[in-house]
Amino acid sequence: MIEVNHISKQFDGKQVLQDITTRFIRGKNNLIIGQSGSGKTVLLKCIIGLYIIDEGDILFEGKSLMEMDPASRKNLRKEFGTLFQGGALFSSLTVEENVMFPLTMNTAMDREEKLERVNFCLKRVRLENANKLYPSQLSGGMTKRVAIARAISLNPKYLFCDEPNSGLDPSTANVIDKLINEITEEYQITTIVNTHDMNSVMEIGDQVAFIYQGQLWWEGSRNDILQSSNKELNDFVFATELTKKLKHKSA
Amino acid sequence: MKVFSQLGEYLLFLRQVFTRPDKFRIFHQQAVKEVESIGLESLWIVSIISIFMGAVATIQMAFNIDTPLIPKYTIGFATRQTIILEFSPTMISLILAGKVGSKIASEIGTMRVTEQIDAMEIMGVNPANYLILPKIAAAVFINPVLIIISIVLALMGGWIVGTATSLVTSTDYILGLRSWYQSYDVFYALIKTVVFAFLITSISGFYGYITRGGAEDVGKASTKAVVQSSIFIILFNLILTQLLLND
């Protein structure tokens, strides 16, 4: 479990996150939603330690990230799997080398063992025959799947996904959502997904945190969203006529 | 004030770069790749420029020493000194600052804006050490080799043009090359080259590493890297010349 306690963050005097307190539960898909510029990516980057928070604390299984020395923080990061918005695959490496990279840098496995693990991860994301391809040869969906394979190669305890569906068609986006959901349940990891894709919210949102203007505005499950009377949340989630009709129908 | 802040950032960046590599085997592999990318891929441009500059230097020397009071072999001697002391180590390093510096800054900058560096950091890897240290090590190793090649080719270029245009005989030119030779001059050239290699790779790596934004910012970082590397090469050229050649 990850606990975020009263965290705040500002850039050049501009308050981006303000007093956010929430918890992300193990074995569940914890979604952070909000408009572009609401601060959800900053929140995710604070949790994974890419940004240093100005106030508050972040606890991983009760251990404070802020109080960790660099060695402990480095060890903690080995338990992270991260899926970046654009995939962040290393463009000079093949798919196989990309997935193998965390294993090479963080384990003492020999090449055979690493290759076995790489093939397992690629099979898990249904990309068995892509080993020798370069990132420039992959489609958007394949890039995301390779990024997921790389993220799970070290058997992470925590999976962080920043806009996993951005730039994907609804059907491919659904495949990625299902994959994240399967991996979360199968390995019982704590997954945090940053998204503004409402299909994802309704598909896999076990726990949803709505960030509005840098503040935690609303929390609940995907079912609670349908019943919520929170104006800002409703304006964001049910922004189109179609979704408004759906909410009305469900009510 | 911004200068001091950036200098501080650069020093902190160097502290990150100069840490013990997590895996020496990987570091070695990366460094070998960089020797090819930084050194061997620059061999062609270095060769062309060196031959032509050597030729031009010889013609200019012959033009300026057009008096019976100064022996003809002085042309070979003056060409050699110009090439070894200044042209090859400094001019070629300035050209490499453009070619290699922009390549490093744009490569690292692109990795930064596409979150590849963040991804590396999250995997528990020190990106500055993993990406930049092999480049510095490779340049410090291969640039002196390039400069030696440059010196040889420039002197050959001078000999070819000098003899082909009858400005100087082959015997006089070679006598000039061999006159008052001091190996310290080559040592001085190589010391300068090593320092310039460090400046080019570390400054370009730094500007790439601190890039924020998108494609336009990568372009800006690349330009800054070339400009700053060139300025520091010229500055350190003066400092090193004063330190190493002043008796």
Notes on the protein architecture:
- The complex is a heterodimer of chains A (251) and B (247).
- With 251 residues, chain A is an alpha/beta fold.
- Chain A is built from 10 helices and 10 strands.
- Chain A has helices at 40-47, 70-77, 95-106, 111-124, 140-152, 170-187, 198-204, 222-227, 231-237, 241-250, and strands spanning 2-11, 14-24, 29-33, 55-60, 63-64, 80-83, 158-162, 190-195, 207-212, 215-220.
- In chain A, helix 3 (95-106) runs parallel beside helix 5 and helix 5 (140-152) packs parallel to helix 6 (170-187).
- The two termini of chain A are 33 Å apart.
- The mean pLDDT of chain A is 89.
- Chain B is an all-alpha fold and 247 residues long.
- The radius of gyration of chain B is 21 Å and the shape is elongated.
- The chains are: A alpha/beta (251), B mainly alpha (247).
- The interface between A and B is medium-sized, with 22 and 15 residues.
Principal-axes geometry of chain A comes out as globular
Q: What's the CATH topology name of the largest domain in chain A?
A: Rossmann fold
What is the share of helical residues of chain B? over 70%
Strand order, biggest sheet of chain A?
Answer: 6-7-8-3-9-10
Class by alpha and beta content of chain A: alpha/beta
Strand % of chain A is 15-25%
Largest interface comes to: A-B, 22 and 15 residues
Say which CATH homologous superfamily of the largest domain in chain A is assigned.
P-loop containing nucleotide triphosphate hydrolases
Low-confidence stretches of chain A: none
Task: Determine the strand fraction of chain B and express it as a percent band.
Answer: under 5%
Query: Can you tell me the number of structural domains of chain B?
Result: 1
Run of helices and strands of chain B: HHHHHHHHH
Can you give the mean pLDDT of chain A? Answer: 89
Element-level helix/strand string of chain A: EEEHEEHEHHHEHEHEEHHH
Count all strands of chain A and give the number: 10
Instruction: Give the fraction of residues assigned to helices of chain A.
Output: 40-55%
